[in-house]
Design goal:
Layout: H1 18-28, H2 39-46, H3 50-63, E1 66-68, E2 73-75, H4 80-90, H5 92-107, E3 110-117, E4 120-127, E5 142-144, H6 149-156, H7 160-169, H8 183-196, E6 199-202, E7 209-217, E8 223-232, H9 238-263
Antiparallel strand pairs: 1-2, 3-4, 3-8, 4-5, 6-7, 7-8
Length: about 260
């Protein structure tokens, strides 16, 4: 095909509902970095006209999924209802929560469980002890997998071809001066996690934050989720993480695996 020839477009199926797709696009254009958007912002992010974006936004306002002050729009907690049925069907959040509570009570640090969704991790269970990140973490929060301890554990659990495809498409951003940005170095770090069965991340996501994560495996032996502990970097040395926190983290991962196996029998 020459540069002047038109690119063939893939037509949607006859059952495709464009208005639903557009409404979901409006919801998805809000994220951690764009929690509040103007009408113009939403129109640009979704490739919709201002008039169309306005209709979708005002419909979402009436339904209670979006709030507005007249000039800006933002999502409301009701949006979590859209994913609640999926998360509940996994049984993972309910199984993991009491284990996270015991873990956090024991080590006096925040703990979480997440799953992999595309290039991101999604938090499905969490016990916050204190806020140590500039971004507030709640159920449903998404963060880039490559720069998180749970993300690297989940990526380490992928088959080689899926991991290579992920790395090939990845748009790596330097989030701190410690963030690994070279693809070869990132792959090496992920493969090291696969070999060790644990990931320790030192201030790659946010300066002053260290975290460690372990895989949660299903009955098939495949990694289905990850559990972590996060702590201020000044509180523990890297050596202390291995002696004081990681043993409890490993025990928690095993306990969650055993309960999931019981639930899924």
């Amino acid at each position: 095909m020459t540069a002047t020839e038109p690119t063939e477009k893939i037509l949607p199926s006859p059952d495709y509902v464009q208005s639903l797709a557009r409404g979901l696009a409006v919801i998805r254009c809000f994220d951690n970095r764009n929690q509040r958007r103007t009408l113009s912002d939403v129109a640009r992010a979704t490739d919709l006209t201002r008039a169309t974006a306005r209709r979708f936004l005002l419909t979402l306002v009436e339904l209670g999924y979006v709030a507005t002050d007249g000039s800006a729009f933002w999502l409301t907690p009701r949006v979590l209802e859209l994913g609640y049925s999926y998360l509940s069907s996994l049984s993972l959040p309910e199984v993991a929560q009491p284990h996270l509570e015991r873990l956090s009570h024991k080590v006096h640090e925040s703990s979480s469980v997440s799953i992999l969704d595309g290039a991101d991790i999604v938090y499905v269970a969490r016990v916050p002890v204190s806020r140590i990140m500039t971004v507030g973490i709640t159920i449903g929060t998404r963060l880039p997998a490559y720069a998180t301890s749970m993300g690297r554990v989940l990526l380490a659990g992928l088959p080689d071809d899926e991991l290579d495809a992920y790395l090939e498409k990845l748009d790596i951003e330097r989030l701190t001066e410690r963030t690994i940005t070279a693809r070869d170095d990132l792959k090496a770090a992920i493969l090291a996690v696969r070999a060790d069965g644990i990931c320790v991340l030192d201030q790659e996501l946010e300066a002053g934050l260290r975290s460690m994560a372990a895989p949660i495996r299903g009955a098939s032996g495949l990694t289905v989720a990850a559990v972590n502990i996060s702590t201020p970097a000044a509180r523990y040395s890297l050596e202390d993480l291995h002696s004081d926190l990681i043993p409890s983290l490993r025990v928690t991962a095993t306990d969650i695996e055993q309960d999931l196996a019981t639930v899924n029998r």
